[in-house]
């Protein structure tokens, strides 16, 4: 269950008590406020608070660049100009705070993004719930033979069933032992900060994660990408939907100039130019190593 009944009651109470404010609000984001979007089997992402909108980015750019922005006709054009030219600080004027519930092995990847403020559920103070991520059958894949950091074909039949059984049994047995070590029924009971150490990395944790739009887009660029592990990518994809509703102009610019854009090395650009002029260029003539050439031809043929 992504949310406890207490958390759901808190959300319902907050959504029933709207407050008038002079601050900029965005209807697209208001609809997400406090709403828990389910991710994976027990995970969630929800917006707790936000500051700023597309106009806040332009307001900051205009104070920063003054007359330099006069030539840009409208807010959307200015935002696209800023994104295109890597003028990133105006995007830092927007902030957002998420509540995220996620497996510990996903949290380990996520926490590498240092430009954020985090408060995590304390398993020293509180007892963790019996909630473990068990992949859906279509995500139970074999090791990729091509990519050391990726998945290959989906496991089938008995093998798939055996893996699911192992994952479930190990999780339940570890949690039974956790409870038994914590119990003070006829014993002192091991400290929570120690008992947690036998829990597997697919147990769920929770945190509040606050960051600014510039760093959030950087996170999304890396984690909504097809190279990111599926289990973190699904969180990033849900957050992309939320950001698109919050700052549509900034998100469109981000998609066009970052997410769906391509960057070319000097050598790759030179090869493409020569090809456009009708030349046939081999790897030896390209100035690229074998791996770079393979990646280049995978993308450009
Ligand atoms: C597909 C994928 C595979 C990965 N595989 C591995 C792996 O195998 N092993 C591994 O260890 N990590 C791995 N990572 C994590 C990766 O190396 C980064 O740690 C992570 O993506 C965070 O990126 P970041 O440092 O740019 O983000 P943030 O920490 O959010 O930083 C944002 C930006 O702030 C600046 N910044 C922040 N802190 C500093 C600092 N101390 N000094 C200088 N500049 C700073 C940098 O410009 C940085 O880009 C992987 C990431 C991805 C997306």
SS class = alpha+beta
Ligands bound, unique: flavin-adenine dinucleotide
Count of folded domains: 3
Question: What share of the residues lie within helices?
Answer: 40-55%
Distance between the termini: 46 Å
Chain-averaged pLDDT? 93
How does this model look, in words?
The chain folds into three domains: 5-133 and 204-259, Gyrase A, domain 2 (2-Layer Sandwich); 134-201; 266-300, no CATH class. The mean pLDDT is 93. By secondary structure, it is of the alpha+beta class. The chain starts with a helix and ends with a helix. The chain has 13 helices and seven strands. The strands form two sheets. A five-stranded antiparallel β-sheet has the order 1-2-3-7-4. Helix 4 runs parallel beside helix 10 and helix 9 (230-246) crosses helix 10. Residues 112-115, 215, 218, 222, 227-228 line the site of flavin-adenine dinucleotide.
